[in-house]
Q: What sequence folds into this?
């Protein structure tokens, strides 16, 4: 399993649109991606659940990725987060 | 006759028939079924149909309204594919052996509750999207369709609020107005009303829905903000007159397109338009303005989380210069201050923002911001007829310093070999009493003056523009302001420079004649007032 942390920079947080983009990205990989904020977690392939975390600017999230392509997925997800959030 | 009031988003008036758009009864009836497999199949084909509809809506909205408005339908398409949402629906169908409509309705409630429970106002408002996609699915399942609704001619759409789907799917050729109980100026109904140029009232309050029925005759008065239900003869007559006058006026004004801005005695006074973003260009062209007298550049900075890049600014200016061709476009450099601010500027909170660190003061204090903007304007200047003006000038040294930064921007471009126009006119906004009083001292340094009457009035009369309670004291066209304007124009002319007026007063048809007598060279008003002003000028001796 791969794991990293990320602090949301985007002023608007994980709004509907970036959430949609994240889901699309997560679905590119076999691996399962779980995003945790505080004591709540959501599967990054599930849009409504991800939106339910209500992630804001400044929130620290933990991203856990496990599966066959986890190395590639972790690297790309981290890069993608940097780009869009 | 009954009257309700709301906030008008478009100064228009219409007489039409009420058409109430009910919120759909999403709680579809529960029906037991022997073959859940069949319901799952129905669900699959409904989902495909819904996805197709969303795709069509996305493209149509992107074309009719804009990409940003269209994005919502892309999100809806993704929600429709959401695994949790779909699993929940499928589970309800298979476990409870019920019809798909009911399962969708139950899942809808469940997910709405989840978003509401986040306690986050943005996510809470997304519950409307869950409702929208669920309604769409149920409609596809039952074969009902919003676009199947046949609107009578001249429909006034009345609803608690409108979802994006509702606003886009209705047959717009039949709609002559909108009235909603809630909604804001940026709600879908308001945006659509402005694009369609029909009257619209928002925030009328729920009670109005109890007083109307389909087919009632109503007047939507966007001038007074009134919804008049079953109007009496007098109100109807007044409204008809207004509508007729508006139509006649439009025809009369359209005839002025292509005509020159000259008085009867042949004096030329250019009628320019004020714009806030490149999106205002269609209105400028439609109303045949002779140039752009005030291109506010704040749109590039506001609503962002970091400074706009030089490239981003360049593209915006280029678009406006190119569109206007030979016609002059005067860009006002950044006028941001403590009342109009963006967080990333990190401005201090001020007791008295109107008298604070704003406009040219900010630019001269933070030259890196200023030079980036000037470089972008100069780079774009080769694409049209550009001019630059500096806001909030009070002293000679400010002009000298600002012009030095212009030289710096040009020097950098020259070194890089980037083309720019060497002869861009540089002028100032005269919007402080100080600048007007010493306009004889300032005139030799600039190419033109543009008098900003809104701030000039605020500073001359010591009346805060933001305080509506001062309306009585903030006298529009006060003699003191008019005298400052006269002084400014006279001093410009005695140094061979031209002087224009932008701001509300420029479009005041009762004062225009006096401005013409003072010798004003240019008047710049909002695009919708250009032709009225041209008409007035052509009537003056």
A:
């Amino acid at each position: 399993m791969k794991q990293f942390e990320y602090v949301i920079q985007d002023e608007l947080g994980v709004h509907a649109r970036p959430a949609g983009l994240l889901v699309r990205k997560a679905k590119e990989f076999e691996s399962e991606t779980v995003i945790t904020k505080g004591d709540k977690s959501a599967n990054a392939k599930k849009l409504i659940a991800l939106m339910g975390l209500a992630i804001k600017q400044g929130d620290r999230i933990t991203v856990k990725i496990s599966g066959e392509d986890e190395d590639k997925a972790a690297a790309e997800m981290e890069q993608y987060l940097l780009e869009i959030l | 006759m009954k009257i309700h009031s709301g906030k008008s988003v478009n100064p228009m008036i219409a007489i039409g028939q009420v058409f109430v758009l009910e919120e759909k009864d999403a709680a579809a009836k529960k029906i037991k079924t022997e073959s859940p497999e069949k319901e799952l199949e129905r669900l699959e084909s409904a989902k495909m149909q819904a996805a197709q509809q969303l795709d069509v809506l996305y493209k149509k909205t992107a074309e009719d309204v804009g990409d940003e408005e269209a994005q919502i339908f892309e999100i809806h398409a993704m929600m429709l594919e959401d695994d949790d949402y779909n699993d929940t629906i499928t589970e309800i169908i298979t476990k409870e052996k019920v019809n798909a409509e009911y399962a969708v309705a139950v899942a809808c409630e469940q997910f709405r509750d989840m978003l509401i429970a986040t306690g986050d106002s943005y996510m809470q408002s997304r519950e409307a999207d869950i409702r929208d996609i669920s309604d769409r699915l149920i409609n596809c399942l039952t074969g009902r369709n919003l676009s199947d609704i046949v609107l009578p001619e001249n429909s006034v759409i009345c609803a608690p609020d409108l979802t994006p789907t509702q606003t886009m799917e209705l047959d717009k050729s039949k709609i002559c107005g909108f009235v909603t109980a809630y909604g804001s100026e940026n709600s879908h109904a308001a945006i659509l009303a402005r694009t369609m140029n029909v009257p619209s009232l928002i925030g009328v309050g729920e009670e109005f829905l109890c007083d109307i029925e389909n087919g009632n005759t109503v007047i939507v008065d966007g001038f007074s903000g009134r919804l008049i239900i079953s109007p009496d003869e007098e109100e109807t007559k007044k409204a008809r007159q207004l509508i007729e006058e508006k139509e006649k006026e439009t025809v009369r004004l359209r005839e002025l397109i292509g005509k020159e801005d000259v008085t009867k005695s042949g004096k030329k006074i250019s009628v320019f338009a004020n714009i806030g973003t490149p999106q205002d260009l269609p209105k400028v062209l439609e109303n045949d303005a002779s140039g752009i007298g005030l291109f506010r550049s704040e749109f590039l900075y506001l609503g962002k989380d970091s400074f706009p890049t030089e490239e981003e600014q360049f593209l915006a200016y280029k678009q406006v210069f190119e569109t206007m061709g030979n016609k002059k476009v005067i860009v006002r450099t950044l006028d941001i201050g403590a009342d109009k601010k963006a967080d990333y500027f990190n401005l201090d909170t001020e007791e008295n923002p109107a008298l604070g660190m704003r406009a040219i003061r900010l630019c001269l204090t933070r030259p890196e911001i200023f030079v980036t903007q000037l470089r972008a304007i100069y780079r774009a200047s080769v694409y049209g007829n550009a001019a630059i003006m500096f806001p909030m000038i009070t002293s000679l040294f400010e002009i000298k310093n600002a012009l030095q930064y212009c030289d710096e921007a040009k020097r950098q471009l020259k070194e890089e070999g980037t083309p720019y126009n060497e002869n861009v006119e540089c002028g100032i906004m005269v919007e402080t009493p100080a600048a007007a009083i010493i306009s004889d001292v300032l005139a030799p340094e600039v190419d033109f003056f543009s008098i900003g009457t809104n701030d000039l009035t605020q500073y001359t009369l010591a009346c805060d523009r933001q305080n509506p309670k001062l309306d009585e004291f903030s006298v529009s066209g006060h003699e003191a302001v008019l005298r400052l304007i006269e002084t400014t124009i006279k001093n410009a002319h005695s140094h061979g420079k031209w002087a224009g007026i932008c701001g509300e007063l420029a479009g005041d048809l009762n004062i225009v004649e006096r401005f013409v007598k003072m010798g004003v060279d240019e008047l710049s008003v909002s695009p919708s007032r250009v032709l009225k002003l041209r008409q007035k000028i052509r009537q003056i001796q």
Observations:
- Residues 70-84 of chain A form the longest helix (15 residues).
- Helices of chain A lie at 16-26, 47-52, 70-84.
- Chain A touches chain B at residues 10-13, 15-17, 20, 23-24, 43, 45-49, 51-54, 56 (CB under 8 Å).
